[in-house]
Amino acid sequence: MTKWVYVFGDGRAEGSARDSHLLGGKGANLAEMCALGLPVPPGLTITTEACNAYYDGGKSFPEGLEADVMAALQKVGEMAGRGFGDPDRPLLLSVRSGARASMPGMMDTVLNLGLNDDSVLAMARESGDERFAWDSYRRFIQMYADVVMGLDHEVFEEILEDEKARLGHELDTDLSAAEWQEVIARYKQTISDELGQAFPQDPREQLWGAIGAVFSSWMNARAITYRQLHDIPTSWGTAVNVQAMVFGNFGNTSATGVAFTRNPSTGENRLYGEFLINAQGEDVVAGIRTPQSITEAGRIESGSDRPSLEKTMPEAYAEFVRITERLEAHYLDMQDLEFTIERGKLWMLQTRTGKRTAKAAIRIAVEMADSGMISREEAVRRIEPASLDQLLHPTIDPAAERPVIGSGLPASPGAATGEIVFTSEEAVDAVRAGRKVILVRVETSPEDIHGMHAAEGILTVRGGMTSHAAVVARGMGKPCVSGAGALRIDMRNRTLLAMGAKLGPGDVITIDGSSGQVLRGAVPMLQPELSGDFGRLMEWADATRRMTVRTNAETPADARAARSFGAEGIGLCRTEHMFFEDGRISTMREMILADSEAGRRAALDKLLPMQRSDFIELFEIMHGLPITIRLLDPPLHEFLPKGAEEIAEVARSIGVEAEALAARIDELHEFNPMLGHRGCRLAISWPEIAEMQTRAIFEAAIEAAKTTGAPVELEIMVPLVGLRTELDFVKARIDAVARDVMAEAGQEIAYLVGTMIELPRAAIQAGSIAEAAEFFSFGTNDLTQTTFGISRDDAQSFLQTYRQKGIIETDPFVTIDTEGVGQLVRIASENGRATRPGMKLGICGEHGGDPASIRFCESVGLDYVSCSPFRVPIARLAAAQAAVKEG
Ligand code: ADP
Ligand code: MG
Ligand code: MG
Fold first, then answer.
1. Is the distance from CB of 770 to CB of 836 less than 8 angstroms?
2. Could you state, in order of their start, the residue ranges of all structural domains in the chain?
3. Is CATH 3.30.470.20 what the domain over 255-353 is classified as, yes or no?
4. Span from the CA of 249 to the centroid of ligand 1 (angstroms)
5. Which of 353, 383, 778, 822 sits between 20 and 30 A of 588, alpha carbons compared?
6. Which residue puts its alpha carbon closest to atom 20 of ligand 1?
7. pLDDT digits 0-9 by tens, 694-709
8. Burial class (CB in 10 A: 0-12, 13-18, 19+), 693
9. Which residues form the active site (predicted)?
10. What CATH number labels 545-635+670-886?
């Protein structure tokens, strides 16, 4: 016989925290708290297996479930000293859903189940408080009709507002017992009118209605969407918790609240939470009344004059503090708690590992490791690498003047400056045109996602810390100020009115998502502080990881940023970017348009000093670290003007006929440039380009070593090699120039020549290519394009569809396709190292900054990953976690 039901109560439980697969997170932790001897109202948990059986049986309760629940309920009643359906001492219940992972898409909790026209009288008699009994009954009817019967809760809110207005009351708590009875009569009438059925009076019918509703909610649209977004399998099912009620709405010695054992936004090790006197369920988070702080310190900090729990109910408070400490020490992590106080007696209703910001996560992990609660390795393991993004943003310089023009909630950390735009379309257009913008909206909706992506930051007039704008911005790691209520947006005149100032599109503002301030103009900023807890955690990560982390950078600014983020070298320096700058592109064009080798060499001679000085600066910044420099890679027409107007202009400036120029551009036109005349193919057609670049590199290395005293580790990389002979050809030129430069300087420079593995042929022939190549760097962007035969620039239209239709799970340009592209990487690594033992291997595609791909790189045994500067800390942490998993 399958065990469908687990009982908990009176210091004993049939399940434990280990049973969350069966009991769901909430049920497993209720059992655990009970077994720890904490005050938990008795109850029972119906397993996730029962949920699955319910669906297997075509939405009918599995055999034996009903009998098991009723038997368990008998025990719960005994523990509570009450009976379900008992006319004098009715057992009232809460019915709560609870999946393995916390899931907001599921059924809302139903409280006070078991109340009807008779038991409400018993409750009034027993409690001696009629108002309390009728308040509980109306809450039950409202919740049950909404959650189980599917009647919109707004219907009831309207009735209540209407009655309150009629009776001249402001707060729900002002209503008397008799007045609640009138409200209830209207509720019941509405239910009959709207649904054609009466509100169920039989407690058993109520109970099974609620259990069925929890099971059904597993397959509602909200829950399905949530599961898809969070990769939660449908097969998990949900558990149902049926628990004896305790009452926080039992007068002024009763209360209900929520708390965190540490501050979830800063991580500070101090109890943090809110409660409401004479309230029930989720009144605290529903914002009906302003909640009070649990601790006195919290009250003082928030500047509230409403008393803290610490002061109003010192005994219950003291016990609560003891319990929070006990729970944290037991679970070894910050807990998120729900509790109720009934006439001075504390009851625990929930505990779970609390959600937190990245900043709080780091502080909590570091402090827990320091206090010996957890190991350093565990601290490293606990931080989600992608979440570090939140910490890597600039902040406003504290020394800067702050021309404040408004303020709102600090909804997503970091500061941002940009021009005001009022719509997402404008945001996208402005950013395409190379401008930086702040998206200013009354509030945002899902249609604004593209605008939010494009913007530097988001400012909304309405909405709280959990508004759409706030939640989405935090997810994107973008600064956001929400609910800046004093600002006015006048869409007709397209102005933002802020403290007398009238601003419009194009005016620059700065938002500080960490303080909630809105500032006029561009305010000086500081780069993110990477020391403190963050620095220590990263040190621990660095001590754990095996792979090194490099960066993809060619500009001094990027190289410096990457160094400050802890990059240990450059894994990809794309030299072509150096030719796009003003003043250089025209020389580059001269070179491309020259019709003889001599002409090309003359232009290259002019490019040489420019390229050399770029390298000197880069080498000085990287100070002795390894640098992989890739020779010119893109097809040459990318450097040429497009469109008649631009062609005419360029022709004028370099002194050729526009027609001649247009003809040459035509000649260079390719149908499929990605697969065209690019990469090492350029160096084979025009070796003088590679020769100039090699000379610039070696002369710069010699020069930079003079100032730094530490020559960089040069790695010269030949792109897009498919054939061993291609590499042989180019390598011979590199070696020859290197020899010349070294002879001229009378100095030896150590260097490696290697190749990018970015074509399937190269991967398969890696064993032979490794005879010439001294290192491999996996260019997984091109390798993904060429392996799939999908152009990355054209893929988004159909990859989206692929994901929707379940053809692929993840975008292979974001997370490496381990079965296909990854298999090629594996083959090339093994064969390369078979030819050249210990050969240096790295990855330099976008995947180098993606945690899942980094895990794969660890499993293949690559020496390093290389990613964009801002992803370097993420890669350091992900590499550490990968090493722990592999080890
Ligand atoms: P959620 O998953 O949304 O947090 P819960 O099942 O925890 O939903 O229920 C929400 C709230 O209902 C709790 O925080 C608590 O205030 C109240 N509640 C749940 N069970 C009981 C109970 N047995 N007695 C009193 N209040 C309860
Ligand atoms: Mg809830
Ligand atoms: Mg809860």
1. yes
2. 5-244, 255-353, 394-526, 545-635+670-886
3. yes
4. 13
5. 778
6. 94
7. 999 999 999 999 998 8
8. buried
9. 468, 844
10. 3.20.20.60
